[in-house]
Amino acid sequence: MLALDRVSKTYPNGVQALARFSAEIRQGEIVAIIGGSGCGKSTLLRAIAGLDRASSGTVTLDNKTISSPHAKIGIIFQEPRLLPWLSVADNIGFGLADAPAAERRAKVVRALERVGLAEKAQAWPRELSGGQAQRVAIARALVPQPEVLLLDEPFSALDAFTRRDLQDHLLDLWADTRPTLILVTHDVDEAVVLADRVLVMRPRPGRLFDQIEINLGRPRDRNSPLFENFKRSVLTSLDRSLDRSVPDRDATQGPGQAMWW
Amino acid sequence: MISGAPVLQQASEPAENVAAPSRAARYARPLLGALLPLALALGWELVVWLGWSNGRLVPPPSRIFATIAELARSGELVRHIIATLWRVGLGFAFGVVAGTLLGAVSGYWSLARRLFDPTVQALRAIPSLAWVPLFILWLGIFETSKVALIAVGVFFPVYLGVMGAILSVDRKIVEVGRTFRLSGFAMIRRILLPAVLPAYVVSLRVGLGLGWMFVVAAELIGASEGLGYLLLDGQQLGKPAQILAAIVIFAILGKLTDWLIEVAAAPFLRWQDAFIRVKGA
Fold first, then answer.
1. Is residue A261 part of a domain?
2. What is the domain count for chain A?
């Protein structure tokens, strides 16, 4: 279980990005974090990844405190961030440097097939399309079999068709080993398609505003009335999270926050 | 439907041409670059042969090559070339080692950069030839001062290149290394070195170019052998053919050594999205 206990982050310039964020996330759960810009979504994800340290509060995975990147926590960024000097296969195997060569090769081959890029194994990253590159990034993060996979707006740079395709693909890959997925997104559709639970955050400073359980079986039909219902309730919650008239205990909000994206 | 077919064929034809350029085209393209110098050389040869110019100050190519052949036959040419190559090689080696080490340290540790970089930049602002009198006083007129001068010339572009390359490594890529928990040394080997390599090769080539520049300066000052000595000797004895012969050999050696670096680095830089390769060759 991944536990976030009153995680706060204040940057050196005095901006408080995250204030006392607490949540417990079960092993194998898919959680989407959604919220307006500047609500600390990425800050939170980077704290879980161990890339940045929280100013106060703790992140614990199975009762172990996370303060630096951890073997059981993988991350996928908004950009693929492939290493341009490594072939696709070597990029996927990047996190397996300590494994025996034969085992590494076998895992890479399996991962390549799993993301449907077997024929691109020896290609250079520059030869891939945006969607293909992001699939390689997903494979690279999944190959070391993390218990928790963090995704920071992973599909936001892709076109709508590719995005849908990759969302389905991600679920398919998730089903293999069922890691915990924590997905930061600003796409309500994406949150409802993928997540078991949507956490809505409120900006300035970023904190948890609302939680919505998505009780929908998989695969989910994006056009069903139930799906629409969940989308509407997430959107309503998002709207409310930006509404100054909704009381919030420690609300000290400045002006100038109009739209949540 | 029917009209679609020929269009498709047309589209695929040029694609095939790009994929497999004819053998003639592949050899013809580099030759294109030789066209202008060859035409000029032949033109001048003709002008002298027709007697329109006596070619005393600007000897025709045939006389230059005759000079080269003569120097080669006496074994003198090899002696001069080896002397110059040795100086450039030694100076280049010292300059590269020093530039790489100091550049890497300054790029990696900001404290070292704050400590060293202002001094290095101030030294860089001194025209390198200004060192000559001092080097001769300190190191004598012979080999050491020459090698030192060349090393100084090579040092600065390599230092700047390495430091700049390290400073401009993409933070996002470094973060990938961090998420895979690379230790300091693994981070250098697996992320920083490959990221820095393209800029490093460029700085080596610039450094080598400066090395060739400074070897001439060093040999003009005082030498009894070397291609720079051939230049000076040609000037003092009024032998323009010998000066031009040395210049031609400088050009050949400079191009050749630069090409060596390029070829040696090519296997490591295959991944680069090179403009030339995109254009196809």
1. no
2. 1
List residues in chain A touching B: CB distance below 8 A: 49, 51, 68-71, 74-75, 77, 79, 81, 83-86, 94-95, 97, 124-126
What b/e string do you get for B121-150 counting C-beta neighbours within 10 Å, with b at 16 or more?
eeeeeeebeebbeebbeeeeeeeebbbbbb
How would you classify residue A88: left for phi > 0, otherwise alpha for psi between -120 and 50, otherwise beta?
A: alpha
In a domain? residue A120: no
Length of chain B: 281
A245 to chain B, closest Cα gap in Å: 39
What phi and psi values does residue B132 have, to the nearest 5 degrees? -55, -55
| Confidence at residue B21, expressed as pLDDT on a 0 to 100 scale | 55
Query: Looking at CA atoms only, how far is residue A240 from chain B in angstroms?
Result: 34
Tokens of B192: 């920083």
Q: N- to C-terminal Cα distance for chain B?
A: 36
User: What is the nearest CA distance from A238 to chain B, expressed in angstroms?
Assistant: 30
Cα–Cα nearest to A104, from A145, A143, A148, A132: A143
> Residue A247 has what pLDDT?
52
The answer to whether position A194 is within a domain reads yes
Convert the pLDDT of each residue in B135-183 to its tens digit: 989 988 888 999 999 999 999 999 999 999 999 999 999 999 999 988 8
Q: Where are the beta strands (DSSP E) in B118-271?
A: none
Would A98 be classed as within a structural domain? no
The CB density around residue A70, as the number of other CB atoms within 10 Å, is 20
> Alpha-carbon distance B165 to B161, whole Å?
6
Residues 6 or more apart in contact with residue A98 via CB below 8 angstroms: none
| CATH number of domain containing A226 | 3.40.50.300
Nearest by CB to A126, from B172, B175, B273: name it: B273
Q: Which residues of A touch B173 (CB under 8 A)?
A: 81, 83
- What CATH number does the domain located at B75-279 have? 1.10.3720.10
State the 10-residue block means of pLDDT for chain A, 261 residues long.
86 85 88 85 89 86 85 90 92 88 89 88 88 91 91 89 88 88 91 90 84 84 86 87 59 42 44
Taking residue B38's Cβ as centre, other Cβ atoms within 10 Å add up to 12
Question: Residue A65: which domain range?
Answer: 2-81+148-241
Query: A51 and B178 in contact by Cβ < 8 A?
Result: yes
Q: What CA–CA distances, in Å, run from B81 to B76, B148, B246, B259?
A: 9, 19, 9, 18
Strands A30-35 and A16-25: unpaired
Supply the pTM of this predicted model.
Answer: 0.79
The answer on pLDDT for B9 being more than 70 is no
Statement: residue B281 has pLDDT above 50: no
